[in-house]
């Protein structure tokens, strides 16, 4: 559960559950009352969830499940009350608030106390089991955390060592299968009570268009970017076959899923060393600079904050520094997966992350602070309208800023020695970027496609893994090296599945961030190719961004997008323009190769 729910809907509390609906309330009064109740619910739920995520034990499970249960009770009751206004006259703002109320959960509970309790406990258990999960090999080696296993995939080029880490982490997900199946049953029942055919329809209803239109929209965007992905895949496969042999990486089939440097093969930047187009040209080694300059986690966060400040944003409050978790504690289990929190609909902003001195983590920090600056920018909206224009906007803000971490910017802040501008250096840099941004696209798309089918009953529990690997192969062109039957639950090895965070938001964000960047660069008066633009220090770009962020969820996203970019459509031409130099280069490399799988 990420920022939207935590800052908007995560709640709790008898205060609200006991508050009585007034028979003669007007729609405006009803919404005003909900906003007040939510403020208190959110405060208490934020505290319970924060302590759970930063201290996983028996007691915090009780606190977090109780908070989730009370929020669900409030949600069911409030949505039921809102029905009395179905035919009432009301302003567009009030109608929007009531719609946001209905959408204010990603796991609606049935309005039955026993089932509500059961669902809240399942949600708490699943994320706790994921967070505390460890791979304990049966050959006497010590147990390994996700971070440790990820480091093996990032650094090792030994085929079997990578396979062991990849398979090991998936042992952790096995016991989540049954809980997940029960969660699907219960929350589908809850979605039915809210008037949806299944939970996937509720998830797809948050985009100011019908769920069916939204599905078509994501398919359209995928078709726009697919040629870029296919070209990258073809080249990466050929290079991996050089490294590991064509017997291990067949040139006409999917790539083994454990060889891409990342636990989920979602971003491939860690294998840049195998792919650097022009070895040694241009200095892009931020990893080494962070270590050599002994960057601490706090200093890494400060450097990200500094970027936002350069755009004219106010510095983060003292409580951000006091209450955030930057480092993995030595003495307790936590959820290391990075997240940004807005706990009180105001200034209590925090991130929770297990930071290591690496470029990858620096980019994640910029991403997380994007959430926090967004949360602060919309804090004056009424509580129900605090949120992103849609989920993809929330995920895109910090990523947009990472697009400004150009070699020029990195040199300016001393993280590389100098920015080279030769054509070869540009291609190297584009490859580094594409392994992160382009490789992600099909992954970003398929996670919810799997869940939409699960929620709709098209994929039943006895087909969970089969459907998963069909999508992974069809979209990403990757495959496991051995049969992954239904005794496994491989989707559960990805945080957002047990954590129940919808994922299409990240797919949309990967496309939107280039659209945002194009507009911010225009505002900053930049005239060159998009990939060279950094808006670092541009107050004009900052103002445009701030205006978009301050609108929160108060208007349909199309309107908010139009204000920043002049168009009402999400559109992949910006990402395609950005990667034009690399795409031309890849086309030459791939000549004579047979691409596809
Ligand atoms: O989950 C995240 C962020 C927190 S919102 C760290 N991301 C996705 C992931 O890690 O799978 C950012 C990119 C995609
Ligand atoms: Zn995020």
Annotation keywords:
single chain; 597 residues; mainly alpha; 3 domains; two-stranded antiparallel ribbon; two-stranded parallel sheet; 26 helices; disordered N terminus; binds L-captopril; binds zinc ion; Peptidyl-dipeptidase; signal
Question: Secondary-structure map with pairings?
Answer:
Blueprint: H1 3-9, H2 14-18, H3 27-53, H4 58-82, H5 92-102, H6 113-132, E1 134-135, E2 144-145, H7 146-155, H8 159-173, H9 176-193, H10 199-204, H11 211-244, E3 255-256, H12 272-275, H13 286-292, H14 297-310, H15 318-323, E4 339-342, E5 349-352, H16 359-377, H17 391-403, H18 407-412, H19 423-437, H20 440-455, H21 464-476, E6 478-479, H22 504-523, H23 539-550, H24 557-565, H25 573-578, H26 580-589
Helix pairs in contact: 1-3, 3-4, 4-6, 6-9, 7-8, 11-26, 14-16, 16-17, 16-23, 17-22, 20-21, 20-22, 22-23, 23-24
L-captopril (X8Z) binds next to helix 16.
Structural overview:
This protein is mainly α and 597 residues long. The chain has 3 domains: 1-105, no CATH class; 124-180 and 212-282 and 438-502, no CATH class; 286-419 and 515-560, no CATH class. It is built from 26 helices and 6 strands. The protein has helices at residues 3-9, 14-18, 27-53, 58-82, 92-102, 113-132, 146-155, 159-173, 176-193, 199-204, 211-244, 272-275, 286-292, 297-310, 318-323, 359-377, 391-403, 407-412, 423-437, 440-455, 464-476, 504-523, 539-550, 557-565, 573-578, 580-589; strands spanning 134-135, 144-145, 255-256, 339-342, 349-352, 478-479. The strands form 3 sheets. It has a two-stranded antiparallel ribbon. A two-stranded parallel ribbon has the order 3-6. Strand 4 (339-342) and strand 5 form a beta hairpin. The longest helix is centred in the middle third of the chain and has 34 residues, at 211-244. Zinc ion binds at residues 367, 371, 395.
